Amino acid sequence: ALPMAAEVMAVLWWLAYLVASRQLPRVFGRTVVGGMELWRGAWALPTQLVLFPLTLACRGEVADWLFTYVFALFMVLDLFLAGQLSNILYLHHAVCVVGHLIVVCTLPEEAFTTYFWGVVALEAGSGVMNLWTLNEARWANVLYAVGMSVSNAVAAQVTWQWSQLPIPLAPKAVCLVTSISLIVLRQRACHENLRVGVPRHAFRWFQHRWSQIYLTPKYLSATFITTVAPLVLLESISKEIGLALLIVLGCLSCFGRSVGRQSDRKWKAAESLWPTELPTPLRLERGHLVNRHRLVLRRFTIEAEQPKAACILLHGYGQSAHFEFLSATHPGGLHSSWDDSILQHLTGAGISCYTFDLQGHGESEGARGLRGFFEAFDDLAMDLLLLHDAVGKETSGALP
Fold it and tell me: Do 322 and 343 contact (CB within 8 A), yes or no?
């Protein structure tokens, strides 16, 4: 009878998710924040911050079965009802479903208890992140920073306890790799979202090394395969060898190759390719923007003599403003000529030109110190909107 009560409550939770998937998008919208749509984060808050902690506090047959059912439904229904999810979340949910089934169906009660604590700790951190996406107040920033850090610290402690359990090596490795990856990614995302951490003048060497860690869904998938597969094969031969492989491959996987890294000298040379003088009365004005990730972006302005309109120009990937909008001195030569360039034609028609080097390009700073790299396409869109707002203020909105 007791498990049936848990099943009834789980069905009610499932029906509530169906209703929420239809109603909440009208209230919170479908803007994607943190890899998922905003309404889904709002819907998850009661489950992550109330339901899961309550089931942990009220351990018993009903509470355990309720957690078992709801967490499985949570991961599966997200794949069909949550709308747009990032690739890393699809991978996360799939691994969570597999791990959940392994723990519930094959492992002893001691392992379930440790797993229960780990899930609740991680979901609490996700809950404060979802709360932060819904509220721009300062208290939400503080709660996100503190809550996520505490959540990850507790999850790390639970992960260590999991590593000491007398259970088969394969499920132990699956949960270890998954937990460590989640903790690293979540804490890094918190740092990037809030720009919190040690002062810039301290621990510069450590921050530089940490910025080179390159974690992607592809690398995490490869890590999962190259770590777990050997452990499964070697479990019956030597557990010591398997644990050694777990440590070595797990550490190496965190340091992927730095794609897009090129010589800084090449990019710094872009500054010298702009014309030193323009036809009178035109002049090139250099400025800068500071985006939401505190990266300094180089911007350029050329105002027409009698401006009739304003035009914002955006260069392509792997290029820079001078390369895209100046002409080549000769076929295959440097792009540094004003004559017959798009800038000359636009200013000649009375159109003022505004442009900038995208992050990681030209004279602008790049995320993680990489060239040609950005964390998400949304970052480029936000940078463009930043320039758009700046141009609107400078022209007082008088120019189309």
Answer: no
CA neighbor of 75 nearest in space, from 103, 53, 99, 57: 99
Dump pLDDT digits (tens) for 334-393.
777 888 888 889 998 999 999 999 988 888 888 777 778 787 888 899 999 999 999 988
Q: Write b or e for each residue in 62-76: b if 16 or more Cβ atoms lie within 10 A of its Cβ, otherwise e.
A: bbbbbbbbbbbbbbb
Q: Rg for the chain (alpha carbons), in Å?
A: 26
Does a cis peptide bond (omega within 30 degrees of 0) precede residue 46? Answer: no
β-pairing verdict for 309-313 and 351-356: parallel
Q: What is the pTM of this model?
A: 0.55
Cα dihedral 233→239→244→246 (10° resolution):
50
- What does the alpha-carbon distance between residue 190 and residue 161 come to, in Å, rounded to a whole number? 25
What interhelical angle do 217-234 and 239-253 show, nearest 10?
Answer: 170
- Output the six-digit token pair for 313: 């120009």
Q: Which residues pair with 354 in a beta bridge?
A: 301, 312
> pLDDT, tens digit, for every residue of 304-317?
888 899 999 999 88
Residue 286 · residue 357 · CB < 8 Å = no
Classify residue 283 as exposed, middle or buried by CB count within 10 Å of its CB (0-12, 13-18, 19+). exposed
Pair 59, 14: CB distance under 8 Å: no
* Longest distance between any two alpha carbons in the chain, whole Å: 88
189, two tokens: 């995302």
Rounded Cα distance between 212 and 107, Å, is: 38
